[in-house]
Amino acid sequence: MTLRADTPRATARVRRFTPLQRWIHRITAALMGVCVVTAACLYIPQLAELVGRRALVVTLHQWSGLALPVPVLAGLASRVFRADLGRLNRFGPHDRTWLRAALHRDKRPASRPAAKFNAGQKLYASWIAGATLVMLVTGLMMWFTHLTPLLWRTSATFVHDWLALTLGIVLAGHIGMALADPESRRGMRTGQVSREWASREHSLWRE
């Protein structure tokens, strides 16, 4: 975001995400949604009975999980997308200030300095990336049973199941926070946010 002097109409909104970035988010969200829904159908007896066709549900779960990293990997061809990944991967002093304010439930924008992404978004992105990798590896061990010893498969099943539950809780929190911030959702939906919101919530955002 470049804060230049310009006409009020031209400066009303600023670009936050490109169309490619938004499509990466949408496709990843759709694949993650399929993984979560099919997992629920496999592990909750009432849903399993309601849906039936367990073999189809298993197949959908396996292939959606396998495809989950593909949108992000494809997005690496974009310079803008790589730049945003770099931003998500860097923590600075202002991020520690943001986290302290969050822990103390201080919601004043002045006490939560942030660049393009705040510390909460950075932690979420790091956690979801690590969790996806672990889920992929353990899922493959459960899928291709002949490749690993029984002890490994048992351990993988334990990790996969409990991490799936944790993942569902974290995703619910992510969705809840998105629902509470209409302007942030608009940025992901249209690619643009209001300059006032950007200045208030991401005061250190510069490009």
Give a written overview of the molecule.
The chain is mainly alpha-helical and 207 residues long. It contains 10 helices and 2 strands. It has a two-stranded antiparallel sheet with strand order 1-2. The longest helix is centred in the C-terminal third of the chain and has 30 residues, at 150-179. Mean pLDDT is 89; it is low at 1-10.
Secondary structure elements and pairings:
Blueprint: E1 13-15, H1 19-43, H2 45-51, H3 54-67, H4 70-75, H5 79-88, H6 93-103, H7 119-143, H8 150-179, H9 182-190, E2 192-194, H10 195-201
Antiparallel strand pairs: 1-2
Helix pairs in contact: 1-2, 1-3, 7-8
Residue share in helices?
A: 55-70%
Helical stretch count? 10
Q: Please compute the radius of gyration using only Cα atoms.
A: 20 Å
Helix/strand class: mainly alpha
What sort of overall outline do the alpha carbons produce when their principal axes are compared? elongated
Strand content: under 5%
Rounded mean pLDDT is: 89
